[in-house]
Amino acid sequence: MSTAPIIAKNYAHNHTKFSMHNSNEQIHLQSIIPIELTGKRLDQVLHILFPEYSRSRLQEWIKQNVVKLDGLIASNQKIKIKSGQIITIDALQEIHAQAKPQNIPLNIIYEDDTIIVINKQVGLVVHPGAGISDSTLMNALLHHAPELKTIPRAGIIHRLDKDTSGLLVIAKTLTAHTKLVAELQERKIKREYEAVVYGAMITGGTVAASIGRHPLKRTSMAVREEGKEAITHYRVLERFRDYTYIKVNLETGRTHQIRVHMVHIGHPIVGDQLYGGRFKLPKNASIELISFLKKFNHQALHARRLGLVHPKTGKFIEFVAELPEDFLFLLKLLREDNE
Predict the structure, then answer these.
(1) pLDDT score at 303
(2) How far is Cα 34 from Cα 153, in angstroms, rounded to an integer?
(3) Which residues are designated catalytic?
(4) For 314, left (φ over 0), alpha (ψ -120 to 50), or beta?
(5) Which residues contact 336 (CB under 8 A, 6 or more apart)?
(6) Rounded to an integer, what distance in angstroms lies between the CA atom of residue 45 and that of residue 310?
(7) φ/ψ (deg, to 5) at 181
(8) What domains appear along the chain, each with residue ranges and CATH number?
(9) pTM
(10) What is the pLDDT of residue 57?
(11) Residue pair 330/196 in contact by the 8 Å Cβ criterion
(12) How far from the centroid of its chain's Cα atoms is residue 15's Cα?
């Protein structure tokens, strides 16, 4: 499968950057408006002239009064532009000062000058947050590729929960970041997971149930009518006596989406410490399986397949990451116990 590359006209403009201090970087952009852009809105012109920056970032710079036309602040994004005008932007771009580079091993599946694809291990937090300041994927990426310090979120465009393993794509340039974020928002990035859930599913299906913050447990998500749209497709790969091995495809990407949706339909993911509820001993299970399940303290969920349109070549590429060893061993024990 392939997608035609995006074709864009190149406009000559000055684009310089220089460091100001250790937490921000000065961005200076300048261009003379060509005649063919006469009459277009300011925000449209900015996106054409400086495509390496997202529309939201350019609009934010307009609001911050750092965009000027012929030396005068242009604060109205709908203003019509005339040919020959000189447009300048002098803005500060945040560098990830709080995320320090750390030499943390990464399982890199693929890397070029535009993207990195990694197979994240269980236990690795994607980026710093409340109570977590280091030892994250972001820290590891900043050590591996220091140039990521000027990319939003160090190039991370989507995330996996701490105890979910599997594939993630990282953007190495602003242009790649903008394109991949747009691709994600347009639901063009293919994300396929595999999981083991409690209970014997009869067939696959689709869960279309909005997800929002849990009304009582602020660290949890829940199916809520007023939440954001969330759609999950699942298919049975293998059935066991008390468990089911499934393949899951995400149409949307809400926080904890698969875990919340599986609980919602009565099939929580094995090992899920947050949503799985009290540990359930399988009936007539072998001692070895029971012992292993008691020690299996992370969700049996793995982002196995990732497909996307390469932001530079325009071609569709796909990656596969094999299941972790403990996940494979769980399947082995379930098969033996099913005999």
Answers:
(1) 98
(2) 33
(3) 161
(4) left
(5) 286, 289
(6) 25
(7) -65, -45
(8) 14-94 (3.10.290.10), 108-185 (3.30.2350.10), 190-338 (3.30.2350.10)
(9) 0.75
(10) 79
(11) yes
(12) 28
- Measured CA to CA, the distance from residue 327 to residue 233 in angstroms comes to 21
Residue written as token pair 């796909």: 318
| Lookup result for tokens 């325009």 | 314
**258 Cβ contact partners less than 8 Å away, ≥ 6 residues apart:** 193, 195, 232, 248, 250, 269, 301
Q: Looking at residue 31, what is its pLDDT? A: 87
Q: For residues 12 and 87, give the distance between their C-alpha atoms in angstroms, rounded to a whole number.
A: 12
**Can you tell me which residue has the tokens 């082995």?**
332
Provide the token pair at 76. 């109205």
Cα dist. 2→7, 53, 59, 114, 157 in Å?
15, 25, 32, 18, 22
Which residues are 249's β-sheet partners? 192, 233
Strands (E), the chain: 14-21, 24-32, 67-69, 72-73, 86-94, 108-111, 115-120, 165-171, 190-198, 205-208, 211-213, 221-223, 231-239, 243-250, 301-309, 316-320
d(CA 300, CA 255): 17
Mean pLDDT by 10 residues, the chain (339 residues): 37 44 63 89 86 78 89 88 89 63 96 98 86 87 93 91 97 92 90 96 96 85 92 97 95 94 96 88 86 94 97 96 97 91
Cite the DSSP H helix spans in 25-136: 42-49, 55-63
